[in-house]
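Exercise 7.
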Amino acid sequence: MPAGMPLTTQAVAAEFWRSKSLAEMNTAEWEALCDGCGRCCLHKLEDETTQEIFYTDVACRYLNLHTCRCRVYPKRLQKEASCMQLTLAHQEAFAWLPPSCAYRLLYEGQDLPWWHPLKTGQRESVHEAGISVRHAVVSETDVAEDELEEHIIYWVDTP
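Solution. The predicted structure, written as tokens, is:
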């Protein structure tokens, strides 16, 4: 469905995320939780002493910087070794997700934020709310790996 088009699936109307746990969701529901912010595709650095995670403004080469969607999503795990498939079997990955991420919020027992496309019915709402990485990041093809620390950023989240 093109960006900006209303979300009209039966699952949205039923607000499945309120009545099902992450473990109970089917594949379509699980995928629908992604708000399209693109933050999970940013390079992150971890302080080895404190385990604090720092986001950079450097995105995976496969992230479309305008739509904030992966250009190779079906083959992302084969194309990018550092890409993770988010599942409940890899719960440690939830800590690497941004605080505004639907998967992380639901995993932590919280609700989706007001701007989430499943609540607004509009795919663009994540961009309009200023949550996405649109117009705020560069591709990893433009940054040397040893320069990542110079690209640390701090997001202000308002889930």
